[in-house]
Amino acid sequence: xxxxxxxxxxxVVGGVDQNNAPQATCAVYDPVADxxxxxxxxxxxxxxxxANLLPNGKVLVTGGLQALTVVPTQLSxxxxxxxxxxxxxxxxxxxxxxxxxxxxxxxxxxxxxxxxKILLLGGISWDNVIIVGWLPAVRATTDLYDPATNTIAxxxxxxxxxxxxxxxxxxNGRWLLAGGISSLSLTNLGTPTASAEIYDANTxxxxxxxxxxxxxxxxxxxxLGGGRYLLAGxxxxxxxxxxxxxxxxxxxxxxxxxxxxxxxxxxxxxAAMFPTPQGQVHLIGGASAGGSVTNSTEWYYF
Length: 302
Prior knowledge:
Helix content is 0%, strand content 42%. The chain is mainly beta. The strands form 9 sheets. Strands 1-2-3-4 form a 4-stranded antiparallel β-sheet, with no helix packed on it.
């Protein structure tokens, strides 16, 4: 994760190394000096976590995978999801434990509400089961973090479990959550949904809207203007065998429905996205058709 601090620098937290092992190390990037400086490490290695700047200048980091166990199956890594949180203080360059999430979460989403509270939603998780030990799950539940009291309480549940989903801020304390991985079990290896819903922070509630034409997760989204939003690429298939998509869909707040958008030049899942100062959107890399990773890029012009 990369989180902009109050002084304009960026805190880069965790991730994986060249051996695909989650890391606890962190660094601060200074855009003025164009330098990275190592800072204090977290107490827990993390990838697939969230990181949000708080009003007091600290950074809240939640959940993630503390390891990527691949035996006896590739789904064993789900058991590595953690419920712990940590707080980074840039003034003292130190980490302190935060309140635990109510459930382990990785590849979840965080929304900073207008009142400063942070809604932590969905994610890949696991449940203790007496006979087999544990089972994988995708959460529909949410947790609400209050920075004033440094506590976590239950938030409203979504209509569908969601992980690896790109939230779309609609304004006025509302966000669209469309698609994402919605089901995961020993026989269902993580498939996405086409369903969509809107979270309203003013009423602290979810409302279902029209579904997409194609189930997708790990996509990118951006505003087109006039209450219209483009959702680009992503993948269907499963977590272990994703099928990258070149299709896009456009959501309209006027009708709460989706319509086909322009095709990407290349299928892209998990691409990077950069909105330029001139107004274009640059899509970079990602998984392409056939499962390979592409180094190609493309532009969206308004």
